[in-house]
Design a protein that fits this description.
CATH topology of the largest domain: 2,3-Dihydroxybiphenyl 1,2-Dioxygenase, domain 1
Oligomer: single chain
Strand content: 35-45%
Number of strands: 8
CATH class of the largest domain: Alpha Beta
Largest sheet: 4 strands, mixed
Number of helices: 2
Mean pLDDT: 92
Low-confidence stretches: none
Radius of gyration: 16 Å
Distance between the termini: 30 Å
Number of domains: 2
CATH architecture of the largest domain: Roll
Helix content: 10-25%
Shape: globular
Structural class: alpha/beta
């Protein structure tokens, strides 16, 4: 098998409108397609960033909560590259999102920090 690239990440949210706003207005994703699937009582929102399709955001009635974070089996976090972590932190703070203190990667000497989406999914921003 030869994997060519990441196709998408699927995320189930508890409050569709709140998460849709977060991923589009805060993180800057572009809506490619939004579909309501009546038989599942579920929205499916296809999101891209800089022209690359990356996230499928789903709503389902009464999804179970994530039990622990981030050191549990399964997906640990999403990581996005930014040019300036400090500027990104300022933007997050202006939008009432409190990231963790900025850290330095001990192997690359690059800045990074974590914050959470509306359902407490850990998100990392990592300076290029």
């Amino acid at each position: 098998m030869k994997i060519e690239r990441l196709h998408h990440i699927a995320i189930i949210c508890s409050d569709y409108e709140r998460s849709k706003s977060f991923y589009t207005h805060i993180l800057g994703f572009h809506i490619e397609q939004e579909v309501y699937r009546k038989e599942r009582q579920s929205y499916k929102l296809d999101l891209s960033l800089n022209g690359q399709y990356l996230i499928e955001l789903f709503s389902f009635p009464h999804p179970p909560a994530r039990l622990t974070r981030p050191e549990a089996t399964g997906l640990r976090h999403l990581a996005f590259a930014v040019k300036d972590v400090e500027a990104a932190v300022k933007f997050l703070n202006l939008n009432n999102i409190q990231p963790e203190p900025v850290r330095i990667d001990e192997f690359t000497d690059r800045k990074f920090t974590f914050f959470s989406d509306p359902d407490n999914l850990p998100i990392e921003i990592y300076e290029l």
